[in-house]
Write a structure and sequence with these properties.
By secondary structure, the protein is mainly β. Helices cover 0% and strands 46% of the residues.
Protein backbone atom coordinates (compact mmCIF):
# COMPACT_ATOMS: atom_id res chain seq x y z
CA UNK A 1 0.00 0.00 0.00
CA UNK A 2 2.80 2.41 -0.83
CA UNK A 3 1.32 5.79 -1.69
CA UNK A 4 2.85 8.08 -4.29
CA UNK A 5 5.16 10.65 -2.78
CA UNK A 6 6.23 8.49 0.16
CA UNK A 7 9.08 6.07 0.66
CA UNK A 8 10.17 3.73 3.40
CA UNK A 9 13.20 5.90 4.19
CA UNK A 10 10.97 8.96 4.66
CA UNK A 11 8.75 7.38 7.31
CA UNK A 12 9.33 8.60 10.85
CA UNK A 13 8.49 5.36 12.65
CA UNK A 14 7.11 1.88 12.26
CA UNK A 15 3.35 2.20 12.37
CA UNK A 16 2.52 -1.40 12.99
CA UNK A 17 3.95 -4.65 14.20
CA UNK A 18 1.27 -7.24 13.54
CA UNK A 19 1.69 -10.18 15.89
CA UNK A 20 -0.67 -13.08 16.12
CA UNK A 21 -0.19 -16.04 18.43
CA UNK A 22 -1.29 -19.61 17.92
CA UNK A 23 -0.74 -22.66 20.08
CA UNK A 24 -0.18 -26.39 19.92
CA UNK A 25 -2.18 -27.67 22.92
CA UNK A 26 0.01 -30.63 23.81
CA UNK A 27 3.31 -28.73 23.72
CA UNK A 28 2.11 -25.53 25.42
CA UNK A 29 4.24 -23.42 23.10
CA UNK A 30 3.15 -21.16 20.34
CA UNK A 31 4.23 -19.08 17.40
CA UNK A 32 4.36 -15.37 16.85
CA UNK A 33 4.21 -14.14 13.29
CA UNK A 34 3.37 -10.91 11.56
CA UNK A 35 4.43 -8.06 9.30
CA UNK A 36 6.36 -4.85 9.76
CA UNK A 37 4.89 -1.85 7.93
CA UNK A 38 6.03 1.73 7.64
CA UNK A 39 3.80 4.69 8.42
CA UNK A 40 2.36 4.78 4.89
CA UNK A 41 1.39 1.09 5.15
CA UNK A 42 4.20 -0.19 2.90
CA UNK A 43 5.90 -3.45 3.85
CA UNK A 44 9.39 -3.21 5.36
CA UNK A 45 11.76 -6.03 4.34
CA UNK A 46 15.10 -6.45 6.12
CA UNK A 47 13.95 -5.14 9.52
CA UNK A 48 15.31 -6.81 12.65
CA UNK A 49 12.50 -7.97 14.93
CA UNK A 50 13.38 -8.86 18.51
CA UNK A 51 11.19 -10.97 20.80
CA UNK A 52 12.12 -10.47 24.46
CA UNK A 53 10.60 -12.48 27.32
CA UNK A 54 9.84 -9.83 29.95
CA UNK A 55 10.25 -12.31 32.82
CA UNK A 56 13.47 -14.08 31.85
CA UNK A 57 14.90 -11.37 29.54
CA UNK A 58 15.68 -14.12 27.00
CA UNK A 59 15.76 -12.55 23.53
CA UNK A 60 15.42 -13.94 20.02
CA UNK A 61 15.69 -12.12 16.72
CA UNK A 62 14.32 -12.57 13.21
CA UNK A 63 14.64 -10.57 10.00
CA UNK A 64 11.61 -9.64 7.91
CA UNK A 65 11.54 -11.27 4.49
CA UNK A 66 10.76 -9.68 1.13
CA UNK A 67 7.08 -9.46 2.13
CA UNK A 68 7.85 -7.77 5.46
CA UNK A 69 6.96 -10.95 7.37
CA UNK A 70 8.61 -12.39 10.49
CA UNK A 71 8.08 -15.66 12.39
CA UNK A 72 9.04 -17.05 15.82
CA UNK A 73 8.35 -20.73 16.60
CA UNK A 74 8.23 -22.54 19.99
CA UNK A 75 7.33 -19.47 22.06
CA UNK A 76 6.64 -20.26 25.72
CA UNK A 77 3.61 -18.64 27.40
CA UNK A 78 4.41 -15.33 29.08
CA UNK A 79 4.66 -11.60 28.53
CA UNK A 80 6.86 -10.37 25.68
CA UNK A 81 8.25 -7.19 24.18
CA UNK A 82 8.34 -7.02 20.38
CA UNK A 83 10.81 -4.54 18.90
CA UNK A 84 11.42 -3.64 15.23
CA UNK A 85 14.53 -1.80 14.04
CA UNK A 86 15.97 -0.76 10.70
CA UNK A 87 18.50 1.92 9.79
CA UNK A 88 16.70 5.12 8.80
CA UNK A 89 13.66 4.38 10.98
CA UNK A 90 12.75 5.15 14.55
CA UNK A 91 12.59 1.90 16.54
CA UNK A 92 9.13 0.50 17.26
CA UNK A 93 8.47 -1.29 20.56
CA UNK A 94 5.34 -3.01 21.86
CA UNK A 95 5.56 -4.17 25.48
CA UNK A 96 3.23 -6.50 27.36
CA UNK A 97 2.37 -8.80 24.43
CA UNK A 98 0.75 -11.76 26.21
CA UNK A 99 1.20 -15.28 24.92
CA UNK A 100 -1.18 -17.73 26.60
CA UNK A 101 -2.22 -21.32 25.97
CA UNK A 102 -4.96 -21.81 23.37
CA UNK A 103 -5.15 -18.07 22.63
CA UNK A 104 -5.14 -16.09 19.45
CA UNK A 105 -4.32 -12.39 19.35
CA UNK A 106 -3.86 -9.95 16.50
CA UNK A 107 -3.92 -6.37 15.34
CA UNK A 108 -7.16 -5.00 13.94
CA UNK A 109 -6.42 -1.30 13.52
CA UNK A 110 -3.42 0.96 13.06
CA UNK A 111 -3.46 4.71 13.63
CA UNK A 112 -1.03 7.12 11.96
CA UNK A 113 -0.67 10.83 12.53
CA UNK A 114 1.88 11.92 9.93
CA UNK A 115 -0.35 13.54 7.30
CA UNK A 116 -2.27 16.68 8.25
CA UNK A 117 -5.74 15.32 7.47
CA UNK A 118 -8.15 12.48 8.29
CA UNK A 119 -8.46 9.30 6.24
CA UNK A 120 -9.92 5.83 6.84
CA UNK A 121 -9.18 2.72 4.78
CA UNK A 122 -10.98 -0.56 4.20
CA UNK A 123 -9.50 -3.56 6.09
CA UNK A 124 -6.45 -4.66 4.09
CA UNK A 125 -3.54 -7.06 3.96
CA UNK A 126 -0.03 -5.59 4.28
CA UNK A 127 0.14 -5.79 0.47
CA UNK A 128 -2.84 -3.42 0.14
CA UNK A 129 -5.52 -5.93 -0.90
CA UNK A 130 -8.97 -5.73 0.70
CA UNK A 131 -9.44 -8.49 3.29
CA UNK A 132 -12.68 -8.21 5.27
CA UNK A 133 -11.96 -11.41 7.25
CA UNK A 134 -8.40 -10.75 8.57
CA UNK A 135 -7.47 -7.31 7.25
CA UNK A 136 -6.18 -4.37 9.25
CA UNK A 137 -8.19 -1.13 9.20
CA UNK A 138 -5.94 1.93 8.96
CA UNK A 139 -6.75 5.46 10.13
CA UNK A 140 -4.69 8.58 9.52
CA UNK A 141 -5.58 11.15 12.17
CA UNK A 142 -3.27 14.13 11.70
CA UNK A 143 -6.01 16.58 12.62
CA UNK A 144 -4.83 18.35 15.76
CA UNK A 145 -1.68 20.24 14.76
CA UNK A 146 -0.97 23.71 13.50
CA UNK A 147 -2.57 23.07 10.11
CA UNK A 148 -4.64 20.66 8.06
CA UNK A 149 -3.96 20.11 4.37
CA UNK A 150 -5.89 18.92 1.36
CA UNK A 151 -4.65 15.72 -0.24
CA UNK A 152 -1.68 16.26 -2.52
CA UNK A 153 -1.06 12.61 -3.43
CA UNK A 154 -3.25 10.26 -5.39
CA UNK A 155 -6.03 8.68 -3.34
CA UNK A 156 -5.49 4.99 -2.58
CA UNK A 157 -8.27 2.85 -4.12
CA UNK A 158 -9.12 1.38 -0.68
CA UNK A 159 -9.55 4.78 0.97
CA UNK A 160 -13.12 4.95 2.28
CA UNK A 161 -13.28 8.56 3.46
CA UNK A 162 -10.96 11.56 3.87
CA UNK A 163 -11.15 15.20 4.90
CA UNK A 164 -8.93 18.17 5.77
CA UNK A 165 -10.58 18.99 9.11
CA UNK A 166 -9.56 19.53 12.73
CA UNK A 167 -10.80 17.04 15.30
CA UNK A 168 -10.09 13.82 17.19
CA UNK A 169 -10.85 10.14 16.66
CA UNK A 170 -12.80 8.46 19.46
CA UNK A 171 -12.24 4.70 19.69
CA UNK A 172 -14.33 2.43 21.90
CA UNK A 173 -12.64 -0.94 22.37
CA UNK A 174 -14.79 -3.98 23.17
CA UNK A 175 -14.12 -7.66 23.84
CA UNK A 176 -14.94 -8.68 20.26
CA UNK A 177 -14.79 -5.44 18.31
CA UNK A 178 -14.43 -1.68 18.25
CA UNK A 179 -16.37 1.46 17.36
CA UNK A 180 -14.94 4.64 15.89
CA UNK A 181 -16.28 8.16 15.64
CA UNK A 182 -14.49 11.22 14.28
CA UNK A 183 -15.33 14.26 16.41
CA UNK A 184 -14.70 17.49 14.47
CA UNK A 185 -14.24 20.90 16.07
CA UNK A 186 -17.28 23.12 16.52
CA UNK A 187 -18.52 24.57 13.25
CA UNK A 188 -17.47 21.61 11.10
CA UNK A 189 -20.12 19.30 9.67
CA UNK A 190 -17.78 16.43 8.68
CA UNK A 191 -18.47 13.11 10.42
CA UNK A 192 -17.31 9.53 10.18
CA UNK A 193 -18.30 6.62 12.42
CA UNK A 194 -18.66 2.86 12.32
CA UNK A 195 -17.80 -0.47 13.89
CA UNK A 196 -15.41 -3.31 13.26
CA UNK A 197 -15.00 -6.88 14.49
CA UNK A 198 -11.80 -8.20 16.07
CA UNK A 199 -10.24 -11.30 14.54
Amino acid sequence: MKRKGFSIAAAALFALLLASTGFAQSLQVGTIEGHVLDQSGAIVPGATVSLINEGTKFARTATTDGKGQFYFAAVEPGSYTLKAELSGFKSYEAKGQRVGANATAGVDIVINGQQHNYERFKPMTPGGDVDTARGIREFNVGTGGSSVEDFTVSVHPNSETRAAVYGVLQLTLKATGYDWKFLPILGSNYSDSGSGTCH
